[in-house]
């Protein structure tokens, strides 16, 4: 191959094969990650089946009560989910965050 000229057809074949290999590898990685999320995901994990009252919401959450982030049961849970989302979206750099109000849209 050294010293030979490469035709356009050969270049297209090599490029196409290379792209096919890369996309196959990415697809395999995607499937492995999806499998990990199915194995290690704890959906709807709750230690306490009852809802937490407003007066002891902070104390109960500090004691290890898990909340379902997909379906928060009350306003305190919704505020905790929003605060965690904002902190996560900023890479954990914001430590002190205060939510003044929450309004539902739609």
TrEMBL record:
Q: Name the residues that span the membrane.
A: 20-40
The alphabetized UniProt keywords are: Cell membrane, Membrane, Plasmid, Transmembrane, Transmembrane helix
Q: What is its main location?
A: membrane
Q: Which GO terms describe its molecular function?
A: sodium ion transmembrane transporter activity
Q: Where in the cell is it found?
A: Cell membrane
> Does Cell cycle show up as a keyword for this record?
no
Q: Which Pfam families match?
A: OAD_gamma
Q: Which GO terms describe its biological process?
A: sodium ion export across plasma membrane
Top-level taxon of origin: Bacteria
InterPro entries from the UniProt entry? Na_pump_deCOase
Any one GO cellular component localisation term in the record: plasma membrane
Protein name according to UniProt: Oxaloacetate decarboxylase, gamma chain
């Amino acid at each position: 191959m050294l010293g030979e000229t490469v035709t356009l057809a050969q270049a297209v074949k090599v490029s196409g094969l290379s792209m096919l290999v890369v996309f196959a590898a990415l697809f395999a990685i995607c499937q492995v990650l999806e499998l990990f999320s199915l194995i290690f995901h704890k959906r709807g994990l709750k230690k306490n089946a009852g809802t937490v009252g407003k007066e002891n919401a902070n104390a109960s959450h500090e004691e290890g009560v898990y909340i379902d982030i997909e379906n928060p049961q009350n306003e305190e849970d919704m505020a905790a989910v929003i605060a965690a989302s904002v902190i996560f979206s900023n890479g954990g750099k914001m430590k002190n965050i205060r939510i003044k109000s929450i309004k539902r849209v739609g």
